Amino acid sequence: MADVVFLDGQVVTVDGSSRIAEAVAVAGNRIVAVGTNQEVEALIGGHTRVIRLQGKSLLPGFIDSHLHITIFGANKLGVDCKAPGMDTLDDLFQALQEKAAQTPKGEWVRASGFNESKIAEGRFPTRWELDEISREHPIFVMRTCAHHSIVNSRALELAGYDERTADPAGGRLDRDERGRLNGLLVETAHMQMFEVAGYNEAELIQALSLASADFAAAGITSVHDAGGYGPHNIRAMQKAVQAGQVKVRIYAMAAALNRCEDVVRKMLDAGIVTGLGDERFRIGPAKVFTDGASSVPTMAMRQPYTSNPDDCGILYFSQEELNAILGEAHEQGFQITAHAQGDKAIEMMLNCIEAALEKHPRQNHRHRIEHAGVAMPDLVERMKRLGVIPIPNPPFFYEFGEGYIKNIGERVNHMFPARDYFNEGIIAAGGSDSPVTDFNPLLGIHTAVNRKSRAGVEVGANQRISVMEAIKLYTWNGAYASFEEELKGSIETGKLADLVVLDGRILDVPIEKIKDLRVEQTMIDGEIVYERQ
After folding, report:
1. What is the pLDDT of residues 104-154, one digit of tens each?
2. 420 and 522 assigned to the same domain
3. CA-to-CA dists, residue 254 to 233, 269, 283, 346, 420, angstroms
4. What Cα–Cα distance (Å) separates residue 142 from each residue in 125, 146, 167, 219, 320?
5. 272: containing domain
6. Pair 429, 313 in one domain
7. pLDDT in tens, 19-33
């Protein structure tokens, strides 16, 4: 007999034939039946909970294949620059002032999600403006892309930055017209500050618990964590999962925002490779950063930006350096991946994968490229030939679409090219890159289908995909990207009972309304962990 049955629904199975069923039965942590109401009703016993869907959609639990769970949760401990009413620099300063008043002197005051293009003044704050809030607290304001930050003088002191400090490779300490540090830190200069402004393990576990609750409420049952605060970030995730404070399943990349290659090195030296762990927490690919962000923009491009003919972005590694660190990881058995947004960075990662496979051939490697932002047709062809899994971020268009048109022009027609991936038989998996953008998978599905910004501007409409394809991007494809498609990602007998109930019929609502659907229930491992009140 089943523990839980779902009846009278639009059950979007995402199985090999994209079957639509009526009902599902769950026993323990597994799906035990998928079919008609009559077939599933036969499994109802005295203790069975019966959930009548009344025609609403039941889907496999959503899999976000690229986000930063610890960073998202940690950001909830500070000032949220995306909160309603955060429209001017004065609004930011007031929120920082209030946070400083609640924070013991000498401890960090942090903010996240800042976007100068969304602020009335259209600029970053300065070091000196932040000094007016406090010189006793180090203040750290992270841009929404998580590749830039603005800090006060005390933070600069703690990081060892002053006017004599040279720009680090792949980054910049911004300066005013007199050569003084103005507090803006770009790329690797920011990444180093990000580590200095980090959290202790107890804070990280608290952050993970907050993030898990928010993700479950959005129907997310599994995440691929793309790195955060270094090796202790992985330890905190594992402890939080073991303690039951994190319900979502985690596929943890060996990665960090700062000195990512050092984390990969430590994992290699420890003999750890992809796959170590269990269904709740598993080690994923070895990951490094190759270039900058798409929204600033600092991603590495083969041709200059439309908005700046003198700029082609930033690279973190040379081809030889990239081949060395990830080539060794491949040799030792890791799935490998890299943050690569611009077409130049994607090309370098494909070169790296090709060289690694030539030297040490391996079937079913499932090497990935995180973001794979501007994936021109020649790069898509190479992905197909090499068996690479790209991880596009559809919700980026919703938040940053107009900026992409401004910065790369017609190349937006090849940005996160989901249509090309499906046409070529490439298995791509969707991710939000939260906290960079909204983690809501329904917004990701909506934007993959509509390819429009928040303001309704079309961004590469030629790359639109169907609703069913977009659902697959956030379910089965995500499971495949972590070698777990036999465990989850579709509603089939024997698979883990990770399910999500919506408040409507996702296959029937007008496509421009997909983002307005809401999650009513989320089940992880056979347990209903979220119910909408």
Report:
1. 999 999 999 999 998 999 999 999 999 999 999 999 999 988 889 999 999
2. no
3. 10, 12, 7, 19, 29
4. 11, 6, 19, 27, 31
5. 253-466
6. yes
7. 999 999 999 999 999
